[in-house]
Amino acid sequence: MNTAAGKAVGKRTPTISGPCSRWPAENRGIIRQVLDRVGDKWSTLVVAALGDGPLRYTDLKDSIPGISQRMLTLTLRQLHRDGLITRTPYAEVPPRVEYDLTPLGVNLHDIVVSLIDWAGNHHEEIRENRARFDARITP
């Protein structure tokens, strides 16, 4: 290593720009993990579905077309771990469990609904763009 006045020469610390530049380097990993969680399609739809109040597992599954039992279970576990939902079991026969948004989940809800609404409002345009793109690259 070459040094000049006690400093390394020839190596630069890269300057970060863009959306991650606002956060300290030690927080960037967890922020990316949070974005991965809250931005995944099933998490988004679960948070949106719970916006009107608590739901039982079956009601939640019925409100999200296409989600498998395994994926719903995994998604609920991850959202619970992150503190976005609560899981309340009731000692009844048959057993009953309800899921609801925590205050943190409620805070996320409006953002998620806006994203879902955006997708609903622009899906035709995106479908047309995909068709145009695919037509250009398909021989």
Task: Detail the topology: elements first, then pairings.
Layout: E1 3-4, E2 7-8, H1 28-39, H2 41-49, E3 55-56, H3 57-62, H4 69-81, E4 85-90, E5 96-101, H5 103-137
Antiparallel strand pairs: 1-2, 3-5, 4-5
Overall description:
With 139 residues, this protein is an alpha+beta fold. 54% of the residues lie in helices and 13% in strands. The protein has 5 helices and 5 strands, in the order ββααβααββα. The chain has helices at 28-39, 41-49, 57-62, 69-81, 103-137; strands at residues 3-4, 7-8, 55-56, 85-90, 96-101. The protein has a 3-stranded antiparallel β-sheet with strand order 3-5-4. A two-stranded antiparallel ribbon has the order 1-2. It is globular. The relative contact order is 0.10.
Task: Summarize the model shown.
The chain is 54% helix and 13% strand. It is an alpha+beta fold and 139 residues long.
